[in-house]
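quick one, 261 residues, struct below
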Amino acid sequence: RQRLRFELAVGNSTLVQVVTLAADTKRLDIETTADWREKHRMLRVSFPVSVQTESFSSDIQYGCIQRPTHRNTSWDTARFEVAAHRYVDLSDRDYGVALLNDCKYGHKVHENVLDLNLLRSPTYPDPDADQGAHVFNYSLLPHTGTLIESPVLAEAACLNVPVLAFEGRRGAFTSPCRLEGRGVSLEVIKRAEKTNTVVIRLVETDGRNSTCHVLLADPKTVLVETNLVEWTEDGRFAPGPDGAVELTLSPYAIRTFKLQR
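---
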């Protein structure tokens, strides 16, 4: 792991940035600690990249949306910023670059420039907006192939939900199921709202029909499909001899299951 530390001054404010490149990854992490004392000033970061394409991908809840990189219409010109959750990605068929974040959502992508809003300092309606200490992270991730062919989604998830270790504590946890297969993510494992069962939620992430296998820890368990509020029972899926249930999800589908015996 290699690191560089930068100490910067912006007006009356100070910033400390630690740029880290870990082993076995292309993700360049920038951890920023800021003491922000400005008024009516905005702190942004921009990355010009060697990718030219007419649209970019913005992360949204359980999917992504395509937006233009040009300003050909008055609507495009008026779109100063757009919201994205964990990443924006600019890719052609061979190569791309993603800008990841863990808590900053105002993005601007114009032509080949990825731009992220880090801090604002308006005085209305809150006269002290963004004043004081801040700690946040963003990352630059070059990759080969398109967004779907790249590790962008996995790296964005790792940046936002890192592994935590609690010193001096031990625990044992057996997951009720395990997921195998590309293009499907196990997003939720929780207790049901109305019954004493476990609920899981699967999401298709690649924007195409994706097949996965849900491996159940208890071979007597079956998957009972329900809706998001867990009011219905729409179908039962029993595991095969190997303890796995095969499922095919349509593009960006969200499916919820109860684990019942």
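Residues 177-260 form a domain with the Immunoglobulin-like fold (CATH 2.60.40.2220).
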